[in-house]
From TrEMBL:
<dbReference type="InterPro" id="IPR036291">
    <property type="entry name" value="NAD(P)-bd_dom_sf"/>
</dbReference>
<dbReference type="InterPro" id="IPR051606">
    <property type="entry name" value="Polyketide_Oxido-like"/>
</dbReference>
<dbReference type="InterPro" id="IPR016040">
    <property type="entry name" value="NAD(P)-bd_dom"/>
</dbReference>
<feature type="domain" description="NAD(P)-binding">
    <location>
        <begin position="7"/>
        <end position="195"/>
    </location>
</feature>
<protein>
    <submittedName>
        <fullName>NAD(P)H-binding protein</fullName>
    </submittedName>
</protein>
<dbReference type="Pfam" id="PF13460">
    <property type="entry name" value="NAD_binding_10"/>
</dbReference>
Length: 212
């Protein structure tokens, strides 16, 4: 597949980029600078994901668009970046003739009990709350869209560097925990699940979550 990836230089975005390349996909990596590592099957373009016109022009001819865009926590405006990216992609992709969209989502909107989301619990980290609420609003926005084959990929409550095992569980709107009550996944395994979602039509127009 020919895939346009936004956020390809970030911690999670770079893992997604490398996973997709390892599978033989052709990647156009979009970043603010338009620069990054030189790899077979990888080209770089400078593009602001908030600019719908520029996104539409760049997306033309691609089979899918993936977004791993995320603001620097405590530095950039979460709502402007996350919701802005969602609105731009929703506007741009139909104009580009691209239906497939897979996006990096947050864990905060996952349910920990019926009607109770992780972000609403007292133990949720304060520094991540604005990001989680913006991700939740973006998910609500995607759910109103009928013209895109979107997938919103939420990680476990804790996502951090770790090995690529290829062994994890995939769920829906509920937070997944292991037998010890922990919710975690490595960035590498999240990238595997993200790449799987791009290739799997069964994830169209739904949120999935990934955890051990």
């Amino acid at each position: 597949m020919k895939i346009l990836l936004f956020g390809a230089n970030g911690h999670i975005g770079s893992a997604i980029r490398d996973e997709l390349l390892a599978r033989g996909h052709e990647i156009t990596a979009a970043s603010r600078t338009g620069t990054g590592p030189d790899r077979h099957g990888l080209s770089w373009e400078a593009c602001d994901v908030l600019d719908a016109e520029a996104v539409a022009a760049l997306a033309k001819g691609h089979d899918a668009v993936a977004s791993a865009v995320g603001p620097k926590v405590g530095v950039e405006n979460d709502e402007k970046t996350i919701l802005g990216a969602a609105r731009s992609l929703i506007e741009a992709l139909p104009a580009a003739g691209v239906r497939r969209l897979v996006v990096l989502g947050g864990a905060g909107s996952l349910e920990v009990a019926p009607g109770v989301t992780l972000v609403s619990t007292p133990q949720f980290p304060a520094q991540w709350k604005a990001n989680a609420l913006a991700q939740s609003a973006a998910l609500d926005l995607y759910r109103t869209v009928g013209g895109l084959d979107w997938t919103f990929v939420s990680p476990a409550a804790l996502i951090e560097p770790g090995p690529r095992t290829g062994e994890f569980r995939v769920g829906g709107d509920q937070l997944l925990k292991d037998q010890e009550g922990k919710s975690r996944v490595s960035i590498a395994d999240y990238a595997v699940a993200f790449a799987d979602a791009i290739e799997d039509a069964r994830t169209f127009q739904r949120r999935i979550c990934v955890a051990y």
